[in-house]
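Reviewers asked in the last cycle whether our approach scales beyond single polypeptides. To address this, we selected a multi-component target totalling 565 residues and predicted its structure end to end. The input consisted of the following lines:
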Amino acid sequence: MKSLVATQLLESIQRLHAQGMWPGTDWTATELLLAGLVEQIETPDVKTHGDYSSPVALRLAKVLRASPLILAKQIAEDVMRPSRSTQVFEKVEVAAPGFLNFFLTSGALVTTVTEILEQDKKYGSTDLFKGQKILVEFISANPTGPLTFANGRGGFTGDVLVNLLKVLGAKAQREYYVNDRGVQIETLAESVIRRWLIDQGMKVDFPENLYQGEYISDLVKALKLDTHTKTSVQELTKLKAGLKTKALKHMLKDIQRVITDKMGIKFDEYFSEASLYKTGEIQEMLSFLKEAELVYEQDGATWMRTTNFGDDKDRVLVKSDGETTYFLSDVAYHWNKFHVRKYTWAINLLGADHHGYIGRLKAAVEALSRAGQFKEKPRMDILIMQMVRLMKNGEEVRMSKRKGQFITIEEVIDEVGIDAVRFFFLMYASNTHMDFDLQLAKEKNEKNPVYYVQYAHARISSILKQIKKAPTVTQIDLHAEAELALAKHLLQYPDLLKQMGQDFGVHALPQYSIEVARLFHAFYAKCRVIEDEKVNPSRYALIRATQIVLRNALSMMGISAPKSM
RNA sequence: GCCCCCGUAGCUCAAUGGAUAGAGCGCCGGACUUCUAAGCCGCGAUAUGCUUGUUCGAUUCAAGCCGGGGGCACCA
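The resulting structure, written as structure tokens, was:
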């Protein structure tokens, strides 16, 4: 549809140029312009009042310094000249600041509706990212406590992003990076031991730096530690090593349960940080960096020269006490992504509190890339998920996993329902700070726009159910404004997906589906599909197309499309 | 002090540098004997934090300021 508009326009401009009516004499400039025009036309705007518009003329003015209005008029006249056989445009209008408004004929819309019906589940699919092997890493929360509601943001965004990339033709995988080593795991084990003793009535202190949450007690119970004989903290230290693994395993299992059963996310892999040590990749990485002279020793520690690659300071890989840092793991992890597993593209979703990490990560990948570690220069995008503030009665409640002050994502899902929760987290741009009030979320549950969208789908299903025999659609005829507005919006879906592939703005999807639902509900109120027990074939086709688009959009968001509500 | 994000209607949020800045919620009003009222229609003279700049045109870009959040470890 877009290429049709672009083609028409280009033809006209070329004609004008051939006739010497084009104001520029410099053909190179015009060619540049044409390229720009195509780009401009690629994402046209369908305004609610029903025209295809694009701010073309003013662009012309900028490049050629010509009068935009005159130019626009010339183009408009040429596009609509009588000799043309095209049935694409009803009319072309020149609007005040130099816009060209293309009004589509209903015939052009009909083509689209037919296309949607034919393509069905494939409608919106393209091969934009064909051949790309993309690894999307998200959530990756430390396995030292349950997932909080804030993890919902990155969780659902990442999940939908992968769905999107797949529809755009890429091979995309979901990955959760598990930080299953380091002091935090020690702390977890220590917390479990002390809590265990305290729960048995022993007087043991419980330092502030340990995990205070209720879940530690649950963990103690789940680990069935009470079969051991009572003993002191000191003696238990021996048990700690074994306990560490057990506690970790249990915690991770619980996280996976929530992710799979509650959040409905299927990770392709839970990648263990510790595994990088077992396979020797950490050592391999370190020796390589040394050979490549990307590191140096200072104050007894080993530093990586990340500043050579855009970081604002160098970073420690091995501490002076001989312990390796998290950063070293991450360097090896990314080396693993691109070198070992041969991904060409990685997308990492990070919480805003980790934004300071971007510089060193990009520097590390750049360093490895320049050192010839990857077949081709990999692409890496880091998406920052802004903070979600927990509100209570208009006031912020500070969350802390350590202090045990948090609301789990599981609680929220159980309370509000997965569809509403998904929609809630997905509908806002990830770079805005959002406020979350559980009380309000419960109250507003019924008012969540997700039901508005689902209701549209249910209404369509209900109509279709009453149609015993599907009418043969020979010719689609759409006239009413409500019909046309709906059809025009449906045809934008593929463009929307492409756009989302460019900027990863997944929140456009809920916004779009609300708009489709809105247009459908308006259509529903004004136009009947079944009238006097007769089915209107054109409207039948239109609602089926609407159902397809809604279903595809909902399915991409991981939200159910109910047949009745 | 330096770095990142945000500031749009009473509230929560939209808007590739374009036309009269849009939705939802809330408030008020209206319509129904027919496909689901979780719906439709109407209702905001006075919503882009402030000041400059770039541009034919700025919510969008740049600079400065104000306000809010986050980050600046040989932690993860």
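The two ends of chain A are 35 Å apart (CA to CA). We regard this as preliminary and will revisit it once experimental data from Aim 1 are available.
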